Amino acid sequence: MEGIENYAESLQNYLNEVVTIKEPKKLYEPIKYIVSLGGKRLRPVLTLMTCDFFNKDFKEALPAALALELFHNFSLIHDDIMDEAPLRRGKETVHHKWDLNTGILSGDALLILAYQLFENYEPKKFSELAKLFSTTALQVCEGQQYDVDFETRNDVTIPEYLKMIEYKTAVLIGAAMKMGAIVAEASENCKVNTYEFGRNLGIAFQLQDDYLDCFGNPKTFGKKVGGDIITNKKTFLYLKTLQKSNESDARVLKQLFSSFPEDPSEKVQQVKELYVKSGAAKESLQEIIKYTQNANSIIQELNISDKNKAVLKSFSDQLMNRKV
């Protein structure tokens, strides 16, 4: 098994070969810019790692891995436009650095470049990879729409929220791992199980992200703690608190989530106290553990070495114990 550093380095080298600045420069410069901002690149690394685990040269999975990375960056450009965000990873967003039309066009081109990468595979793999990619990409769009819809709805349920984060976040992690298994020509059972491992881990990852946004350490979390509360985002914590609170506390929470105070620090503190008092904070942690254990239970079904099973288990545990 190669180390994660090797996967990341190979991906970066391949990205540099594929993503170049050519005419018209105003289309390709923003693409080069957004992919150069880096990030965790968790999904493509998982694709390469999964291919490697099934005893195939991980470099054969580079086109599929980069396709996922380009799709992810496409979604970031469009998310930033929708959110009217000025910054991405501490740098100017594409539509802010150039203009709105350039952001839309560059994002569209990124999506097309991602599809083109599957042309590196013979017809059977191309078909299987492209079908999975299309299904996943559409689910991510559906998840994003659910997220937008929830902003103006006051009747969002916990199952609806879990479906939203599954589509918006988890299916892409599941697809990343399944693509590695497809390239490695793993069995159908292993393809399904790698997907389910990634999907469950993705849900746990997003639930933990929501938890850290509220209860994380500001020094290690990497962004403003309490951001979801400030923007009145209906997370698992919020919905579970409404479900478990008495009528008085539920009314206070709803009132807090309809306010936009100039100094939100007191609001954030009050909401956090309600999350703890209701038991929602504790249940959120239990839910994270549940989905992580779901993922870990699948590992034994995979036809990979015990050493690689241990690596996957360690990977999921590290992901869940993160502070950022």
Distance between the amino and carboxyl termini? 26 Å
Unreliable spans are: none
CATH topology name of the largest domain, in short, is Farnesyl Diphosphate Synthase
The helix tally amounts to 16
CATH class of the largest domain: Mainly Alpha
Shape annotation: globular
Return the CATH architecture of the largest domain.
Answer: Orthogonal Bundle
Strand order of the largest sheet: 1-2
User: What structural category arises from helix and sheet content?
Assistant: mainly alpha
Following the backbone from N to C, one meets helices and strands in this order, namely: HHHHEEHHHHHHHHHHHH
Overall pLDDT score:
93
Total beta-strand segments: 2
Q: Explain this structure to me?
A:
The structure is a single chain. The chain is mainly α and 324 residues long. It has two domains: 1-186, Farnesyl Diphosphate Synthase, CATH 1.10.600.10; 197-324, Farnesyl Diphosphate Synthase. It is built from 16 helices and two strands. Strand 1 (87-88) and strand 2 form a beta hairpin. The longest helix is centred in the middle third of the chain and has 28 residues, at 123-150.
List strands and helices in order, with pairings.
Layout: H1 4-18, H2 25-36, H3 42-53, H4 62-83, E1 87-88, E2 91-92, H5 94-97, H6 100-117, H7 123-150, H8 158-183, H9 188-215, H10 218-221, H11 227-230, H12 236-244, H13 247-256, H14 265-278, H15 280-299, H16 306-320
